[in-house]
Amino acid sequence: MKRHNSLVDFLLVLVFAVLGFAVMGYHPGAEDDSVYLTAVNADLHPGLYPHDSDFFRLQLQATQFDGWMGHFVKGSGMQAEWAELLWQFVSLFFILWACLSIARELFAEPRAQWAGVALVAAMFTLPVAGTALSLVDQYLHPRGLATALILLAVARIMAGRYWQAVPLLVVSFLLHPIMAALGISFCFILTMVSLEPVRARIRDLRGMERRQAVRQGTAAALAAPLAWMFDPPNPIWRKAVASKSYFQLNQWAWYEWLGALAPLLLFWVLWRFARRHEETKLARFALTVLIYGVFQQAVALVMLETPALVRLAPLQPMRFLHLIYFFMTLIGGCLLGKYLLKASVWRWAVFLAVVNGSMYAAQRQVFSASEHLELPGRASANQWVQAFTWIRQNTPKDAYFAVGARYMAAPGEDYHSFRALAERSQLADSLKDTAVVTQVPELGAAWERQTEAQAGWADFKLADFERLKAEFGVDWVLVSYPAAAGLDCRWHDDALAVCVVP
Question: What distance in Å separates the CA atoms of residue 13 and residue 114, rounded to the nearest whole number?
Fold first, then answer.
């Protein structure tokens, strides 16, 4: 490990990527994949989702992710589920490769560099304060691919190859405009701080922030799906926004605010420490993170706490913490390797066992009713996923389902998406579709009407299902077993039943 060897680097990063993947788990179709995997399915099979495609297509107007994945699947001949798994692993690998490159710019000791990579790999599912984000999702998300490209761009800038960062940031913008806008912001500040003389640059910080604000504002405007952002807010949109705590800073718990502000303090301490020990690159990087964090925090407070700017809330400005948490984890690991782990085999063994074991245990709690690795071709033990699989294989492609507005939060469901895994249309839900409405307010009326029509789902009788059929055209339902009398049920297990509405 004393000399850089590309093959050794590749193999070690590969090992840590495999370990990180095994610890974080893999759950395609969960949570936000209700939008992204569904859109990929729709691109590959245009006959799907004839009743509800607006609930995923409109949100994806600003990204090329689904179209790109569809072209990849068709061009490669791979099945979509294997293609998603491949690109999930590719994103993990390049995130760690970028982290290694950044660590080598900041620390001379190989043990410090690899400890940083090891900690990031273990902490892929680390929650980011109150933003509803983890460092990386347990399924393929364009944010993961964009993060890999942003981190690679940061590494290129730190190596003095500034223009090599440009195409990386451009591609990241095509995949996830909001995260890319934040990445561009960080790279701009990093470039300014990296240039000599540093003190003159710091004195000119106000001018730099004004220029950065213009760039970020432009990027954010491009990220917005069309011009709805400038329309006056309506009550339904406000209702959807109010249901998501990450939009409401005044609803954040004290520990979430601690998670937002403590990293800034830590990077201020690191900046002072590195300056005192004449570690110039580390000092400049810490200063960059500090400036970026303070500036973005100020921007977020203005955007989220100014009533006239309420329509900017869906840009989720507090997600600037995502990059800071990556750097905090990476540098924290590097410092552990340099000052604590050193060359001690037993210390390394304890370190790897503790961080990986604790994160693995946490993930088993989050997805307690599902396999830790929901791999393609593997039968699921989750009863909801089993029902979704039967529906996908045995019902008409134009079937229109009602599942209940809060089905994702049902015991044992583990937040798997009906649309993504059953590949059928459904009435709107009050969890993930609510987040879509915050981004695309014109869906608000349909969302409210459909979710309210499913109120009291657990007590529905045949007449209630017939009302849904008459009002919306719903002809199939997924309900608890035993089903309500009068439904024509085609499949069931001891918990769920798939039935036709007569």
Answer: 9
Share of the chain above pLDDT 90, in %: 74
CB neighbour list of residue 118: distance below 8 Å, 6 or more residues apart: 16, 333, 351, 352, 355
In angstroms, the Cα distances linking 37 to 45, 66, 83, 139, 419 are 12, 8, 11, 9, 9
17 Cβ neighbours under 8 A, 6+ residues apart = 89, 92, 93, 96, 121
Q: 411: exposed, middle or buried (C-beta count within 10 Å: 0-12, 13-18, 19+)?
A: exposed
Q: What share of the chain is helix, strand, coil (3-state, %, to 5)?
A: 70, 5, 25
Q: Is 49 left (phi over 0), alpha (psi -120 to 50) or beta?
A: left
In angstroms, the CA 265 to CA 274 distance is 14
Rounded to whole angstroms, what are the CA distances from 97 to 53, 147, 154, 258?
A: 37, 12, 12, 30
**Is residue 434 very low, low, confident or very high in pLDDT (cuts 50, 70, 90)?**
confident
Tokens 């179709």 — which residue? 29
Judged on CB neighbours under 10 Å (0-12, 13-18, 19+), 248 is middle
For the record, the structure tokens of 403 come out as 């599942």
Residue type, 22: A
Rounded CA-CA distance 150/19 in Å is 22
Instruction: List the strands of the sheet with 488-492, edge to edge.
Output: 425-426, 400-402, 476-480, 496-500, 488-492
Question: H or E element: which one contains 490?
Answer: strand 488-492
Distances (CA, A) of 100 to 16, 223, 354, 385: 11, 30, 21, 37
Residue in the block written with tokens 């982290």: 99
pTM of the model: 0.90
User: Does residue 502 sit in helix, strand or coil?
Assistant: coil
Coil, helix or strand at residue 150: helix
Residue 233 has pLDDT above 90, yes or no: no
Predicted local distance difference test score (pLDDT) of residue 209: 47
Pair of tokens at residue 87: 């690109």
Rounded distance between C-alpha atoms, residue 120 and residue 325, angstroms? 10
Q: Where are the beta strands (DSSP E) in 395-480?
A: 400-402, 425-426, 476-480
If phi over 0 gives left and psi between -120 and 50 gives alpha, with beta otherwise, what is residue 162?
alpha
Tokens 């964009």 belong to 146
- Sorted by sequence, the CB contacts under 8 Å of residue 376 that are 6+ apart come out as 79, 81, 82, 85
Q: Which of 309, 300, 413, 306 is nearest to 366 (CA)?
A: 413
Which residues lie across from 26 on neighbouring strands? 373
The HSE-up count of residue 89 (CA atoms within 13 Å, CB side) is 16
Length of the chain: 502
Which tokens go with 200? 């003159």
Strand partners for 134 = 127
